Amino acid sequence: MNEDKKIAVLGCGLWGRNVVRNFYNLNALGMVCDLDDDNLAKVQAEYPGVKTTKDFNDILNNDEIMGAVVVTPSHTHFRFVKALLEAGKHVYVEKPISTVAQEARDLADLAESKGLVLMVGHLLLYHPAVNRLKMIIEEGQLGEIVYAQSDRLNINYFKNDRSVMWDLAPHDVSMICYVLGKNPKRVISAVGCSSDKNDIMDITHITLEMEGGATAQISDSWITPKKHVQLLVRGTKRTAIMDDTVAENKLTIYDNFKAGSSEVVQSDYLEIEPLKLECQHFISCCQTGKKARSDGENGFVVVSILEEAEKIMLGDRAKNLDNVDFALSRSKKI
Q1: Would you tell me which of 126, 259, 317, 319 could form a disulfide with 277, CB atoms 3.0–4.6 Å apart?
Q2: Distance CA 182, CA 237 (A)
Q3: In the chain, what are the domains?
Q4: Which of 123, 99, 119 lies closest to 111, judged by CA?
């Protein structure tokens, strides 16, 4: 793989700007594509020398671009990722890989058949504290894992996605699977609430049965003014809590049988932005051809679970969301 070839970013909105910044600082950014003139003007002002375009075909037809990052609303992912893979580009797509399990399966198979890297932006798999927790679990320090709970509660004034579950729960599902080293077997229950009284859920609660018998509960919110991001993993001996809202001492271990007993666990490289580590991983995968930690198969597992949860939550009404213009429907609320 030619190390001089660059990465393109498709979409430079609120999160896309962070992706653009990281690839630029890694000297790997070659092109940015967005339909918004103001977004492109900001890129041109902040990152001299980086090409900008409003035409997606400029990425597809550029031989100097070895890979592309898709940072667009989730319901657009499938068509963009498919086109990029068919054009021979490696792809890093923000979570979820799709909102349809069969589409996720098709993309994973397409990447495999073409020998291309397909990486999903399950950011927390690159978080130093999450990786430290995974090591602790693998070492047996917590005992046999019986329960995991992930809460990701925040405020979102745009909400331009299918639901909070599709926006945030991919983080929770992928993270729990990663630290436990187990996939979900089934969705036990799934409920949601819409503050706008429609089928685009602002709050969701999902309960999963994991391989090995542990139970996992996931809560996500778009309407919580005070941010709360926490993962709890309980074993037969000890319980770990990772609080990602604090700057330091994110990971603490508690003895299940001694009140007031706690131990703060230090993580290596905690000062490094997880997104930078994720972007570095994508570049490395493109150059070496190795599978990404959060590959297409990983993305398929997550989408399969969320699709099942949405069907439980909405029943036949879930199909109605396929034709909703989320950006338009939400802009009227802002």
Answers
A1: 126
A2: 19
A3: 6-122+275-294 (3.40.50.720), 125-269+304-331 (3.30.360.10)
A4: 119
